[in-house]
Design a protein that fits this description.
single chain, alpha+beta, 4-stranded antiparallel β-sheet, 9 helices, about 30% helix, about 30% strand, globular
Length: about 300
């Protein structure tokens, strides 16, 4: 029996026309069968199914090679138990807590990538409000900095002009795009596919002609025990910056990660921590970006204090 029972051919055939709108020039064929099994739980027969169905691939020394973004789309769209859906389910576990406003704390945890160099490590961290925090620390790994986010749970009613704009995105289908296309709002317009980054840029670009004030936002999902990178659009409504992410909500309802109450005009802002107005590496060591972890906690005492607990 195949270890990829979720790889339904009919569902794959329905997804492929979206994937095939991405030109091969934007693909990197680097994922072999072993990596497909380890990272995406796609076994040998599953790999054969992808090739026969027409998922783009190249010939490698030990079999077909795939693009990582294509496999991410296949796994997350078709596998209800995929890692991507599991992470997204944490969003709604957090969103549906019966709290009022919540304070979150996010730690920047990094380890020296070059142990043994002279002197202490020099870290530069991207922090909220497009700012930077610089610190020196010993080479051993640890928390380099912490930031807090106070997030409301209620939002102003969206004006008619904004609702009309969001309605015009109903045709866009959610699909992760290669890094070379993720910022390309024109590609989203032309193809009707895109992820949160391109859709956010499109919404911000369309805002001005409708008398709306908008901004692009990059930050983290505040979903203990971790946070994840995310981008979204924000609109100024009654003096409040309201995050919107309609195309993501469409697919999350389709996947049954979000319940029907999470309609596409509803804000996910209660768990979105804005770092700034553009995507950037959050941690650099001696001027070079490095991998880091961002454990996230919620303050059980609310705005006025209390112990920050990791859930």
């Amino acid at each position: 029996m195949t270890a990829t029972p979720w790889l339904d051919r009919r569902a794959l055939d329905a997804l492929l026309p979206l994937i095939l709108q991405v030109p091969d020039a934007h693909r990197r064929f680097e994922v072999d069968g072993a990596a497909a099994a380890a990272e995406y739980q796609i076994d040998g027969p599953g790999v054969d199914t992808l090739v026969v169905a027409g998922l783009p691939s190249a010939t490698g020394a030990d079999g077909p090679l795939f693009d990582a973004t294509d496999l991410r789309n296949v796994a997350t769209h078709l596998d209800p138990r995929s890692r991507g859906r599991k992470v997204l389910s944490w969003w709604f576990r957090e969103l549906e807590r019966p709290d009022a406003d919540v304070r979150y704390r996010m730690d920047y945890v990094a380890q020296c990538p070059d142990p043994g160099h002279d002197g202490p490590c020099r870290y530069r961290l991207a922090v909220p409000e497009d700012d930077w925090h610089e610190t020196h620390a010993p080479a051993a790994g640890g928390v380099r900095h912490s930031v807090t986010f106070d997030r409301p749970r209620t939002w102003p009613e969206l004006p008619a002009a904004l609702l009309d704009l969001l309605a015009e995105t109903r045709h866009i289908r959610f699909l992760w795009l290669p890094e070379t296309l993720r910022e390309a709002s024109d590609f989203v317009r032309d193809t009707g596919i895109g992820d949160c980054i391109g859709v956010a840029h499109l919404l911000v670009e369309e805002a001005g002609s409708r008398g709306l004030t908008a901004r692009f936002s990059y930050g983290r999902s505040l979903t203990p025990p971790i946070s994840a990178s995310h981008s979204w659009a924000e609109f100024l409504v009654d003096g409040v910056w309201v995050p919107v992410d309609p195309v993501l909500l469409d697919v999350l309802r389709q996947w049954e990660v979000a319940g029907p109450q999470w309609h596409r005009n509803r804000s996910l802002g209660a768990i979105l921590g804005r770092v700034g107005a553009e995507r950037r590496d959050l941690v650099a060591h001696a001027g070079q970006p490095i991998q880091a972890k961002f454990p996230t906690y919620r303050d059980t005492g609310g705005r006025n204090g209390g112990l920050a607990t990791r859930l």
